[in-house]
Amino acid sequence: MDLQEFRNYCLSKKGVTETFPFDNETLVLKVGSKMFALTNIKKPNLEINLKCDPLMAIDLRREYSSIKPGYHMNKTHWNTIAVDGTVPEDKILFLIDLSYDLVYKGLKKSEKLSLSKL
C-alpha cells in the first residue's frame, strides 16, 4: 500500500473529507467533523495514525513490531502503523475500517443524520 492507495481507500468511505489543518505535510482524513486517520505525506515511508479499541491496540503492538502507540496522539486510543510489509495489507484495511467505524459511532446524532443523506 502506498500513500495514494491509502488516500483513495479512505476517501471511498461515506462522508470522508481530507484536510491539512496542522501544516502542509500532515494529511488528516475525517468522517464528518472528526479525524480517523492521519499521515505525513512528506515521509519517504508511509506511516498511518489510526484510532483503535484500547485492548486491541495493545494486542496489535505485541503482535507487530511496526505498530506503535500513536505518534503525537492519545497513546491509549491511537496506533501508528509503519506500512513496511510486516502488517498484511488486508489487516491495514481492516484497521482503517475499524478507525472509521469507531469515529463514526462517536459523532453526534445530527451529524450522523446529515452524513446518511450523502
TrEMBL record:
Keywords: DNA-binding. The keyword 4Fe-4S does not apply. Coiled coil: none annotated. InterPro entries: YjbR, YjbR-like_sf, YjbR/MT2646/Rv2570-like. The keyword Transmembrane does not apply. GO terms for molecular function: DNA binding. This is MmcQ/YjbR family DNA-binding protein. It comes from Clostridium rhizosphaerae. The lineage of its organism: Bacteria, Bacillati, Bacillota, Clostridia, Eubacteriales.
